[in-house]
């Protein structure tokens, strides 16, 4: 038991010195290990938002440009509806992306780490640190032991999140919020666009 | 907003987020398909308009009796049938495809929450029939103009 503590302590120290290089310059986010699952999630988010949504919006805007520049003057209103549609898709995509990133890739900001206690994030390390005795961790106002410290007004993580017990996953990736509202918004928006388009094309004769 | 009620908060175990994001991308693929049909409708309307204008000029300037007759028929056909209905019918197809995509998204979501996935058949048959109908109609237009 004593030996175990010794090993974990030395591991902690070596990682701590590494992590001091990993302080995030000017960022409010704490350093956080990316687990395999989290990387997969990030890639899926990028495929969806930076890929599919943006492609849809750009397709609309490109064709709007073709209509407005190449087609005859009767199609000005059609081109305008295309432009509005493309811009609204872009806005919906951005909003949805930000919202999902906030939920899925949540990381505690430095002020959150200092002023609040996140038991899920801190409890495992707290006990570890207490037993090791010579921790570099700081105590917050609430008295909880935290795996981070503030150096020169910058947040420095002093414990690796890989030292969390296996049963505790890192923060973030706990919940997923489905994009039903964005999908329904796009559906209704496109339906309105098509109805307007139908009217404009039918009226053209 | 009222639409927010459609957002569901799920526990992200395993590939839950990835599954639902893939479902979202599939809807976007449906949306792009339907937008493609709508854009095709706009383009066809413009093309027929150009053909119409060219035909009018040709009818006026041609001294060939048969050519005049053909151009008159083509012009007549364009004016009465194609120009009026082909473009808007592409937009109608876009509406149907979008509705199928929306239905497919929420159906897939319903079954994903129950660890199942619905294999698509009706949606594929629908898009096949719609495409076939519009292709045949466009082909008919070409045949009519040139016969």
From TrEMBL, chain A:
It comes from the Eukaryota. The chain crosses the membrane at residues 75-94, 183-202. The keyword Transmembrane applies. Keywords: Membrane, Transmembrane, Transmembrane helix. PANTHER family: DUF202 DOMAIN-CONTAINING PROTEIN, YALI0F00814P. This is DUF202 domain-containing protein. It comes from Nadsonia fulvescens var. elongata DSM 6958. The lineage of its organism: Eukaryota, Fungi, Dikarya, Ascomycota, Saccharomycotina.
Automatic annotation (TrEMBL), chain B:
Coiled coil: none annotated. Keywords: Cell membrane, Membrane, Transmembrane, Transmembrane helix. It is found in: Cell membrane. InterPro entries: DUF202, IM_YidH-like. It comes from the Eukaryota. It is a multi-pass membrane protein. Its main location: membrane. Signal peptide: none annotated. Residues 18-109 form the DUF202 domain. The chain crosses the membrane at residues 85-103, 123-145. GO terms for cellular component: plasma membrane. This is DUF202 domain-containing protein.
């Amino acid at each position: 038991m004593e030996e175990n503590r010794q090993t974990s302590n030395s591991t902690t120290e070596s990682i701590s010195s590494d992590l001091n290089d990993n302080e995030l310059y000017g960022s409010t986010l704490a350093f956080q290990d990316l687990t395999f699952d989290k990387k997969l999630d990030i890639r899926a988010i990028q495929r969806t938002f930076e890929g599919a949504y943006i492609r849809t919006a750009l397709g609309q805007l490109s064709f709007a440009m073709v209509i407005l520049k190449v087609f005859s003057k009767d199609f000005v209103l059609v081109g305008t509806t295309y432009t509005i549609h493309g811009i609204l898709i872009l806005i919906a995509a951005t909003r949805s992306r930000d919202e999902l990133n906030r939920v899925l890739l949540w990381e505690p900001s430095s002020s959150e780490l200092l002023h609040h206690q996140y038991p899920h994030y801190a409890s495992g390390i707290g006990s570890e640190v207490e037993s090791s005795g010579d921790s570099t961790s700081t105590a917050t106002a609430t008295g909880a032991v935290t795996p981070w410290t503030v150096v020169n007004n910058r947040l420095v993580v002093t414990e690796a999140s890989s030292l969390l017990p296996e049963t505790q996953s890192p923060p973030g990736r706990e919940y997923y919020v489905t994009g039903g509202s964005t999908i329904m918004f796009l559906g209704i928006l496109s339906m309105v666009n098509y109805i307007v388009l139908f009217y404009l094309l039918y009226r053209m004769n | 907003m009222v639409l927010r009620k459609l957002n569901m908060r799920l526990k992200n175990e395993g590939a839950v987020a990835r599954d639902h994001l893939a479902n979202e991308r599939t809807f976007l693929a449906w949306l792009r398909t339907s937008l493609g049909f709508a854009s095709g409708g706009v383009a066809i309307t413009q093309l027929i308009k150009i053909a119409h204008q060219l035909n009018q000029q040709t009818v006026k300037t041609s001294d060939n009796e048969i050519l005049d007759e053909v151009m008159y028929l083509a012009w007549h056909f364009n004016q009465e049938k194609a120009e009026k209905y082909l473009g808007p019918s592409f937009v109608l197809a876009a509406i149907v495809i979008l509705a199928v995509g929306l239905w497919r998204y929420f159906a897939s979501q319903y079954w994903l929450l129950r660890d199942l996935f619905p294999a698509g058949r009706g949606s594929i048959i629908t898009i096949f029939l719609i495409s076939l109908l519009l292709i045949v109609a466009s082909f008919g237009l070409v045949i009519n103009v040139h016969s």
